[in-house]
Specification:
The complex is a heterotrimer of chains A (204), B (94) and C (541).
Chain A lengths: L12 H32 L1 H9 L3 H26 L3 H31 L7 H5 L2 H37 L8 H25 L3
Chain B lengths: L10 H21 L7 H21 L7 H25 L3
Chain C lengths: L22 H4 L4 H29 L10 H20 L2 H14 L8 H20 L18 H4 L4 H28 L12 H33 L12 H35 L6 H14 L15 H29 L8 H24 L1 H7 L3 H31 L1 E2 L2 H27 L14 H31 L1 E2 L44
Antiparallel strand pairs in C: 1-2
Classes of the chains: A mainly alpha (204), B mainly alpha (94), C mainly alpha (541).
Amino acid sequence: MADHHVHSEHIDRETGKLAMWIFLFTELFLFGGLFLVYAVFRAKYSEDFHTAADDLNTFIGTLNTVFLLTSSMTVAMAITAIQKNERNLAFMLVLVTLFLAALFMIDKYIEWSHEIKNSIYPGSEILKNKPHGELLFFGLYFMMTGLHALHVFIGMTLLTINLVKIKTGSINQEHFLLLENSGLYWHLVDLIWIFLFPLLYLVT
Amino acid sequence: MKNTASHITGYSTYAIILIVLLALTTLSVLATGYHLGAFTVGLALLIAGIKVATVISYYMHIRSENLFLKLAVIGVFVLFGLVIIITFFDYLFR
Amino acid sequence: MAAIGGENYTSYLNHRGKYHGILSWLLTTDHKRIGLMYFYVIAAFFFIAASLGVMMRTELIAPGETIMGPQTYNGLFTVHGIIMIFIIVIPGLSVIFGNFFLPILIGARDVAFPKLNLLSFYLFCLGAVLAVLSQFTGGGPPDTGWTFYVPYSVESSTNVIFALTAAFILGFSSILTGLNFIVTIHKMRAPGMSFFRMPLFSWSLYATAWIQVLATPIIGITLLMVIAERVLGIGFFDPSLGGDPVLFQHLFWIYSHPAVYIMILPAMGIATEIFPTFSQKPVFGYMAIALSSLAIAFIGYFVWGHHMFTSGTSYFSRLFFSLLTFLVAVPSAIKVFNWVATMYGGSIDLKPPLLYAIGFIFLFMIGGLTGLIQGALATNIQVHDTAFVVAHFHYIIFGGMGFAAFAGIHYWFPKMFGRMYNIRLANIAFGIIFTGFNLFYFPQLIIGMQGMPRRYFDYLPQFSTGQFISTIGAYILFTGLVMMLINLLYARRRGAPAPANPWKGVTLEWQIPSPPPLENFDVLPEITRRPYFFGEPINAK
């Protein structure tokens, strides 16, 4: 097991956490703009939104919710593990988190392929011939889940970096800010989905 | 460097929170099966809000953070809520 | 602690670290060098955008086509706006003077995240490059105005996506700077410096940083939506697909109004630093100014609809926004009272920084009062989309923030470079700039009220006199600016060595040598009282 790396300086844990939280605020507002658009068009086209949401597979959506909620638990546990110097456990928990994230992405891929195969995507002829509210619903669906998936991907990249650093020992009981902040980022990804799920899948 | 409030949350706490979250998820899926009209959205959002608050409080440790951060998190959501409400001053009353 | 520059220490300009030559600048993490690099880039872009403005004024010197056709004119006012807004006035004072002086003012050696600071700078450069490239690639220079209103920004065949991407990247740079400053202020103040012992420039940077962090993401996602509209036909803003173009306006101004407070708050902070120094008197109403900064940032979040009074929004919405607009003027007015009260009874030293600061108050007030005319629903209809609006925001941004920037430059120049400029020349340049400015923009208020539309390259003969005087004013203004620039450029190389404290200031930056050493302080200061105490320096034991 590797010993402490000699870094030029470690960022103070409280300072680093504050910075991460502020960054999360910016992410909340980034998605917030899309939620605002959703709110406006949901109010205007409630019927169409109901109809369009019927097209979505609630089971896959619920499954994805379960994946992300569980992955939030596992990454939080990973931080406990590293604090208790249980390095192998921490590694496994981050790995499980990654695995659940991958399952989420696979689900997403299946969903999107299904829609695109049925010619439901922004700009398609089918969509243009649907009622306005449905067109807008799918526009929001693709943009919101697309942006969210991008963030899942970024989160997975962060988690992979964490895996490496746990293995090499640069993340350890004394210094685990990267893991903690990656965990916060991952929870944000989960938070966004917690709101997306009912708004997109449960409006039937 | 002193270790600030480095209390370690137990694994079982996290597991219990997950069970709570899954239960709330089940509740929202079932509840929206019923026709509650306009309240369906409200209920779904309420449950989502509780889930979000739970994740932020326990998984993201806001409970053990300083008051400033707690207020900032609340403030951010309040600010965003106000922006939506004010935008609807336009859309609702056109 | 060392006093005169040239003694036994190495300034940040001469420091030899890991890298040499140009790399020691391009790879620096020193907040002072980063601030200086921003300064040079922004100054260069300012003169480019100002020259574009002069070209626009030349076109408008007489009715009809003078030197360019309408398409060129539209491209010019668009790029003039994009550069001025996103590259100069939004980042400007934060990244130049905030970067250079925030750590020093709070008794720190650097910002919280120096490498992140350098990343902000490179993102800024990338955004600026993209903005320039948008002029020469694709379908030609964007002609939508910097406000990118739909549907035209979706339909225009010009290179809109480049410009949107540039703005997006510049926004990201702004967010990271704001994040850095918030954490810096929270975590890196010197021992004994509570929040209410911070200098007021730091307070203004704090309020600004929160706006940067909380408002900028909205423009980020909005720009993405416009790109999605252009490329995918996503429909949010397209009435034929059920969308609403006014929704774009809401989203755009939800950011862009708070953005103007990003512009003005640091400017007010600089003025608040200058008045006590050149009156040799503590600032009047420290708490009021600190809290007003926060109040402006907060209330400023809820006034965005006043840009949309003629867009068809609901009556209730218009009432609400008009009321909030009048409310947000109050903390600004409080600051003006406090600045004047600071000077009253003081030992006034009419040096260039104070001249510009006084000019700032005068021009900012004209800008603010004309803002109230626009904030009232009835009068707004008369002046919306006219030259009156153009004059209003130039009075506020250029007369307000710009003059505060010039004040800051003349105030902190000796500290940053260890050299003094020619005071007499600086005063003359000020006079020319001030005269040219008013000759330029005051007629625009008048002809705007009379109906001269904005963003028009041609106009009716009745506006000729006003436009002619304006253009002459613009030439005079530009001459003054060039004079100011030459004075400073000369001083940079050949100015007399400046002492550590040429203005007898009492905040921390004046207690260290000019230019400062790399790590700012030999020994981190311990703060024992409120700032602006004109007995002894702030960190005296």
